[in-house]
Design brief:
Largest sheet of chain B: 6 strands, mixed
Mean pLDDT of chain A: 94
Strand content of chain B: over 45%
Oligomer: heterodimer
Strand content of chain A: over 45%
Shape of chain B: globular
Low-confidence stretches of chain B: none
Mean pLDDT of chain B: 93
Number of helices of chain A: 0
Radius of gyration of chain B: 14 Å
Order of helices and strands of chain A: EEEEEEEEEEE
Shape of chain A: globular
Helix content of chain A: under 10%
Number of strands of chain A: 11
Number of helices of chain B: 0
Distance between the termini of chain A: 37 Å
Number of strands of chain B: 12
Distance between the termini of chain B: 41 Å
Largest sheet of chain A: 7 strands, mixed
Structural class of chain B: mainly beta
Chain lengths: 113, 117
């Protein structure tokens, strides 16, 4: 079974631009979560989607948004990029239910200049 | 809110030896799950082991085992017969266990493990 895939793997953007990252979950997984990883803040939860609905959201500004499609694929969007948005963005998918573990994709490395 | 603390930023172990990585957490809930994830230089997060809070028996996966002390809110990872491929960053993570709860993982800051040949 194919793992979680994320595209693109690397991205360089300029301050003020916007960016869209994509995540395809493992087949059969309907929950998709996004995390931001930086050296200073570590791994922080952005949001989770299930059945095309945002189920939970972390403490990030409204510039960070996401969506999920009917095939469970998910995208996250960051508008008006800031230098501090430079990070590794990780997507994770899981089955829905108590205690199912999350499986992570390889991440998208975003650099904002 | 739940918190996860990994107080040791770095550890080193000799190949073939045993090492224990520490993790403590704070929660007021009784149902939850704990995980250890490994992140090698490739940055791919890999699940190492999981522990259900309601289980008294410590989880084991080959060379990896945990020491789960629920009353002390401690969850350490023991790696036996360390191999060069074990060198990575290790994250301890917490997830609520309530029915209907979301999948959010709360991570510790991580421990960088190096393995000496």
């Amino acid at each position: 079974k194919a793992g979680v895939t994320q595209t693109p793997r690397y991205l360089i953007k300029t301050r003020g631009q916007q960016v869209t990252l994509s995540c395809s979950p493992i087949s059969g997984h309907r929950s998709v979560s996004w995390y931001q990883q930086t050296p200073g803040q570590g791994l922080q939860f952005l949001f989770e989607y299930f059945s095309e609905t945002q189920r939970n959201k972390g403490n990030f500004p409204g510039r960070f948004s996401g969506r999920q499609f009917s095939n469970s694929r998910s995208e996250m969007n960051v508008s008006t990029l800031e230098l501090g948005d430079s990070a590794l963005y990780l997507c994770a998918s899981s089955l829905v239910g108590i205690g199912y573990e999350q499986y992570f994709g390889p991440g998208t490395r975003l650099t904002v200049t | 809110a739940q918190t996860v603390t990994q107080s040791q930023p770095e550890m080193s172990v000799q190949e073939a030896e045993t090492v224990t990585l520490s993790c403590t957490y704070d929660t007021s809930e009784s149902d939850y799950y704990l995980f250890w994830y490994k992140q090698p230089p490739s940055r791919q997060m890999i699940l190492v082991i999981r522990q259900e809070a309601y289980k008294q028996q410590n989880a084991t996966e080959n060379r990896f085992s945990v020491n789960f002390q629920k009353a002390a809110k401690s969850f350490s990872l023991k790696i036996s017969d360390s191999q060069l491929g074990d060198a990575a960053m290790y994250f301890c993570a917490y997830r609520r266990g309530k029915l209907g709860a979301n999948s959010k993982l709360t991570f510790g800051k991580g421990i960088t493990l190096s393995v000496r040949p």
